[in-house]
Design a protein that fits this description.
heterodimer, A: alpha+beta, Alpha-Beta Plaits, MutS, DNA mismatch repair protein, domain I, DNA polymerase, domain 1, 4 domains, five-stranded mixed β-sheet, four-stranded mixed β-sheet, 15 helices, B: alpha+beta, SH3 type barrels, five-stranded antiparallel β-sheet
Chain lengths: 415, 106
């Protein structure tokens, strides 16, 4: 455990970089932003090219924050392109390390545990990082930065603090760097895991830099913040015992879906929306070959102070059937809905189990049930092959429907 | 381990893009793909011999499809030279897809 070596790799300005490469432009000289202009001046800018970053454009901003450049390129988000590029890069990582030693942290960031491979490749972690970065550049045209450290935390901080400005885009930190590089970090929120809110609390306790935090009494911090306090104190001392192979990450314990509606909806219109969301959510459930035992519904009203409600109920038996789940959700809906306009809807399926056996229902014809299941499987296969808009309920053509619009987006942005 | 923090839990991905999982799974599946093995003249000869000389007994077919290699045990009903397929008791196989053929007990 003491001779771990972690490389954290991050794809530089990922979305805008992909757009530049795809258009044959140099990201370091091209003013390009990924931003769906049609959504108005308040549109979120998803990514800005390195060229714009070097001019001081913030990475996260809105369209009206951008400088007015005559040659500015607005790239409409193409989420599916970014996801397949991201998978391509992960596939390159898997040429170097085993699945077990890889942790995909986000669309543009992955952790690699490389200690077991250094003998095989006969190189240092830094040389290995160089090789991986070069391969990614050669195969995809994308530029990465890498942080290297004795644990995930230090590797991540090395990446965030140093690698981005390093000439070779690699920063390596050891335990010896802690006093000079980690403890000098101030304000506190510049360290991973400290929010501005937490920073204010720590400031009030007399801590201004990470060094102050590292030397503060661990007992007091644990007393105040519990297990998060322990984690915080360990991080400030450059300690992080997490092990990539641990994969303690629970497999999705529940599946959920939610949307903010484009306008206020009348309570009478909402069942249609719930229907459509159940279709999409149960598709994912069936894809994972699981059954749900609990359903949860959230409805948020439009307008200040009206709030909403969130309730859950158990299904009569584990199910992946659209009508079972819709029925249970509507049971909640009818019971709690009041006469306000609605703006937010969310639902989740919990208590997921694998269908080892099936208890037959006295009141449902098992043959009918099987027939329905086959119909559902066929629809799922059509969706998988021809896209989610290939087969839809006729209600998708009504004004209130959001299905077609949602299916043409990934993570709320254009495919 | 004296450090009692939350282990890998704190590094759990936000998973704000549920679709990422699909893309990664597809990539993993693709990574397992192999290219179609090339047959030497002797290997092709062997397959041909067995196709000609078998007498309706079960044979083990190794065949290639979409980047993966499969095996199936079946007997031959007929060999259709015009459409270049072997009609077996279980499935119909294009001759081109067959990369190995042997008797069950050999």
């Amino acid at each position: 455990m003491n001779n771990k070596s972690i490389i954290v790799i991050d794809l530089k300005a990922f979305y805008s970089f992909v757009e530049c490469v795809d258009r044959g432009l140099d990201p370091f000289t091209t003013p390009l932003v990924v931003c769906d202009k049609e959504r108005g001046p308040g549109s979120i800018v998803l990514s800005v090219s390195p060229y714009l970053k070097s001019m001081g454009v913030p990475s996260r901003c809105r369209q009206y924050d951008l400088p007015k450049l005559p040659n500015m390129i607005f790239a409409v988000p193409r989420m599916s392109l970014y996801l397949s590029k991201s998978a391509e890069v992960v596939s390159i990582f898997l040429d170097y390390v085993d699945e077990e030693d890889l942790h995909v942290y986000s669309i543009d960031e992955s952790f690699l545990s490389v200690a077991p491979y250094l003998n095989l490749y006969k190189c240092t972690p830094r040389e290995l990082a160089r090789r991986i970065l070069d391969t990614v550049k050669k195969k995809t045209g994308l530029v990465c930065t890498a942080g290297i450290g004795p644990n995930i935390f230090l590797a991540k901080i090395a990446l965030d603090r140093e690698a981005k400005s390093a000439p070779d885009r690699i920063a390596e930190w050891t335990m010896e760097d802690i006093p000079t590089k980690l403890w000098t970090i101030t304000p506190l929120s510049e360290m991973w895991g400290i929010s501005t809110h937490l920073e204010a609390t720590l400031n009030a306790m007399g801590m201004v830099s990470v060094g102050d935090l590292a030397h503060f009494s661990k007992d007091l911090i644990v007393k105040k913040f519990g297990i998060m306090g322990e984690q915080l104190h360990n991080h400030a001392n450059g300690l992080d015992s997490s092990d990539i192979r641990e994969k303690a990450i629970p497999k999705d314990q529940s599946l959920s879906i939610g949307q903010t509606l484009m306008r206020d909806y009348d309570p009478k219109e909402l069942p249609l929306i719930i229907r459509e969301m159940v279709d999409d959510l149960t598709l994912r459930l069936r894809f994972e070959k699981k059954l749900a035992t609990v359903v949860h519904l959230f409805v948020g009203y439009s307008g200040e102070g009206l709030g909403g409600f969130a309730h859950q109920t158990k299904l009569l038996r584990p199910s992946d059937d659209v009508d079972d789940i819709y029925g249970a959700l509507m049971h909640i809906y009818d019971k709690f809905i009041s006469n306000h306009q609605i703006r937010n809807v969310g639902m989740s399926l919990g208590g997921l189990v694998y269908p080892d056996y099936e208890q037959l229902d006295l009141f449902v014809d098992p043959e009918k049930r099987e027939e329905k299941r086959r119909l559902q499987t066929t629809i799922d296969e059509i969706h998988a092959k021809y896209g989610s808009n290939a087969v839809l309920r006729a209600t998708a053509l009504t004004k209130a429907s959001t299905a077609i619009e949602r299916h043409s987006r990934i993570g709320g942005h254009r495919k | 381990m004296s450090e009692n923090d939350r282990g890998m839990k704190k590094w759990a991905p936000y998973a704000s893009l549920i679709e990422q999982k699909d893309y990664l799974n597809r990539m993993r599946k693709n990574k397992e793909r192999v290219s179609k093995p090339l047959l030497s003249a002797e290997q092709a000869e062997e397959i041909n011999d067995l196709l000609l000389h078998c007498r309706g007994e079960d044979l083990i077919f190794r065949y290639f499809k979409d980047g993966f290699i499969y095996e199936i045990q079946q007997s031959i009903l007929s060999v259709d030279c015009a459409s270049k397929v072997v009609r077996g008791s279980e499935m119909c196989l294009p001759l081109k897809a067959i990369i190995g053929l042997k008797r069950v007990n050999s």
